[in-house]
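User: I'm designing a mutation panel for Cardiolipin synthase and want to avoid disrupting the core. Could you give me a predicted structure to guide residue selection? Please restate the sequence first so the numbering is unambiguous.

Assistant: Good idea. Sequence first, for numbering, then the predicted structure tokens:
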Amino acid sequence: MGVWDAFRSAWSFMTPDWFGMSLLHTVSGGLVWWAWILLGLDLVVKIIAVGYVPSQRKPSSAMAWLLAIFLLPFIGIALFMLIGSPYINRRRHKIQNSANEMLRTISRDEPDVPEGYTLTPELRSLVSLNRQLTAMPATTGTVVAVHSDYEGSITRMAEAVDTAQDYVNVQIYITAWDDTTDVFFRSLERAVERGVTVRYMFDHVGSWKYPGYRTLGKRLDEIGVKWLVMLPLQPWRWRFRRPDLRNHRKLLVIDGHTGFMGSQNMIDSSYLMKGNIREGRHWIDNMAEVTGPVVALLNSVFAVDWFTECGEELPLLTPSESTEWLSSRPDMLQIIPSGPGFTTEPNLRLFTSIVHHAKKSLVLVSPYFIPDESLLEAITTAAYRGVKVELFVSEKADQPLIEHAQSSYYAELLRAGVRIRRFPYPAVLHSKFMIADHEVVCTGSSNMDMRSFGLNYEITLMSAEGSLLEKMTALAGEYREACTELTSEEWDTRARSRRYIDNVARLTSALQ
């Protein structure tokens, strides 16, 4: 047997047999022409993927994508081209970079930490990190309340809108006009009737599956609200982008003096799904109400997103221009926006830094806990060095794939000594916050998962030693009372099939 015959026989043995015929079967002693083409394309795709996919990507994500491409070359590369790129279009990057430079310019005279506040070197380094990554300095503000009653939070936002005299800016990921949210939209209607300019943004893909979406725009038009969909997926209008990107922010700004931000969407707590209503499933959230200079920075995040979607410029106020509505001893607060427009993952770096900062206690609250390697290592390391680490999650997540991916981390967390507290079903614990050593707290829209770190536009509020810290600590205490703790003994009894599905879901969570 010649060398070529041996090579051909080896390939025929190693390649799969499709529909009863080897892909590389021979005709008249040679490979058929289409087999040569497929073999060549397959080889080219894999060679290119090995050199291209790992660029600007975490090793776990790169390996997951390479595995998909090597096992299913043409399907894998098609998916990668559709949702695998870590970048969005150049226009959005350019706008974000320009906005950052503008914010740096108008806040250049603002110190990293407002005068009169003394921070430890570690806490000061967190503030400096956030400013370096996002151009946002720390400023002051009064935390009026942390609203954790779902319907009560919506009612309070409506009451605040009723005080508006100039403008109302709303940016909420999922929006539906239903019986629960009607009180809020009626307040917007009254504001427009008073001559107030009302702007509203909601995520296109995030909102379109909920009842009433098809008529939502028409209803907003009828009450005079200026509205936009964020990250529209409308190829027929030449508006196309990665279909898995989301603007996940939730914020409300009233006249530059009052703001709300947190985890709550503008929709009934059942999310209007028949299955949820039947089972009594409802969402648990929190929204922080703030006043003072921090509201100007909150509004600047809205202004950048509004300009990105429609090209209309809104004024960017510096924190010093909004000094009203402050208590006698306001908090030191810092806004941290993040998302695909940034290339440095500000929320991930902040969360990881806070975990490393913890010396005594660490509270983590997230509905979707699918950390990357750096955050997972930081959390388990903290537990190993004696930090009391508590992770609050839902007993049952609202999305099965996320439920399995999240569960795949429990064994190593429990082994490290992390206490996993699960909020009982049918509630979905949707709040998102972190507290370290009763010294620093952050809360907002960002989950502790790879989607929030790399694919979602998010917003976070950080504070040190103030009323926000006290209020969030009290809220964590309420959650602790309601939760049950998962033990290693209980977790070790799970079925082998469950372990397999968890691990598969963990692998697919890295495909981004």
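For picking mutation sites, this is relevant: The chain has three domains: 3-84, 90-125+137-333, 346-509. Residues 337 and 459 are 4 Å apart (CA to CA).
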